[in-house]
Amino acid sequence: MKKLALIFAGLSLLAFTGCKDDETPEQVFPLVGKWSPTKEVKTQVSATGAGFSDEIVYTDCQKESRWVFNENSTGQRTNRDLAGSTPTCSTISQRNFSYVYNPSEKNLEIKYQGTVVVEKSKVILLDDKTMNLKFEDTTDPTVYKSTTYTFKRVTQ
Q: Is the pTM of this model over 0.90?
């Protein structure tokens, strides 16, 4: 009987100490912060399967552009590029927006101030240094179009 009790005690001890939760919780990084675009990829595929994908690497001037996501669901997009008769790096557009971000589904909706258009995107990657946003154009059901932006975090 003592052997049976020892075996039971040993198995119980093994059951309590032998199991370990191997799943590490997914780390959640904030969308809030200031982001610098580094490149974009434009993809287009027709219903016949013909298509292309172009990668556009931004210039140093274009990398000075900023997408700012504030905690109160507002933001600002500032685009910079070479402009003028003697091209200098200048702000070519600046737009305020509001946004709704669902981190569990990774959906992001951006509405620019003064418009009724809502741009819908998917957060493909979001970590402490990098974010990829994919915008899909569904206006033509026979052609798939998407633009994926890659950003580098400037600040949080």
A: no
